[in-house]
Design a protein that fits this description.
GO molecular function: peroxiredoxin activity
CATH class: Mainly Alpha
Shape: globular
Order of helices and strands: HHHHHHHHH
Number of helices: 9
Radius of gyration: 16 Å
Structural class: mainly alpha
Largest sheet: none
Domain Carboxymuconolactone decarboxylase-like: 50-131
Protein name: Carboxymuconolactone decarboxylase-like domain-containing protein
Helix content: 55-70%
Pfam families: CMD (PF02627)
Oligomer: single chain
Number of domains: 1
InterPro entries: AhpD-like (IPR029032), CMD-like (IPR003779)
CATH architecture: Up-down Bundle
CATH topology: AhpD-like
């Protein structure tokens, strides 16, 4: 149940409507809007605090459309955060984005396994492992760093850490505020619990 009721779009200031419209256009790029989750409940919740919404979405925009990571790599990280933090909203929204990035439903489901299995290629397994390390210890382990540094450039390594940290924070906010999954997300709610 929502602890902060999402603002209806009719309640948003014209400035916020324009800002969020530009944000969504940047995130969508060339893909049709109807293939992406609308995020109405999340955006409506953020709309209750426009200054925070603009600051957060500006930064988050980098992770979604300006990151040096590929879409698939980004979604591996975010879905692992969602699984570990048991954030249904984040899981559902990013399961859709993972499919758009070319991941199969079987791969998406495997992200939630307690321990990444050997079916993952080394780089993917390292992304899942780094997420676990950052969420549990707040630091990338030496062995994981060595594996990642052999695969990724410096800016990508930075984007990895910031992606995990940002989506961990977002999972906390979504769960704490009681943001309910939108109807378009319900078919993607986690099956891993």
């Amino acid at each position: 149940m929502a602890r902060i009721t999402p603002a209806e779009k009719s309640e948003w200031s014209p400035d916020l409507v324009g800002f969020i419209g530009e944000f969504r256009s940047s995130v969508l790029g060339d893909t049709p809007a109807d293939t992406h989750p609308a995020g109405a409940n999340l955006l409506g919740t953020l709309a209750r605090y426009p200054a925070l919404a603009k600051a957060f979405l500006s930064f988050n925009g980098h992770l979604l459309y300006g990151s040096t990571l590929g879409d698939r790599q980004r979604e591996l990280l975010i879905l692992r955060v969602a699984a570990v933090r048991q954030c249904d909203y984040e899981w559902a929204q990013h399961a859709i984005l993972a499919e758009i990035a070319g991941m199969s439903k079987a791969e998406i489901d495997r992200i939630a396994a307690a321990v990444p299995d050997d079916e993952w290629v080394a780089a993917d397994r390292a992304l899942l492992t780094v997420t676990d390390e950052l969420l549990s210890d707040g630091v990338v382990g030496a062995r994981t760093w060595e594996i990642l540094a052999a695969e990724f450039e410096q800016n990508q390594l930075m984007d990895i850490v910031f992606t995990v940290g940002t989506y961990d924070m977002l999972a906390m906010a979504l769960r704490s505020f009681g943001v309910e999954p939108d109807d378009d997300l319900k078919p993607y709610l986690p099956r891993h619990r």
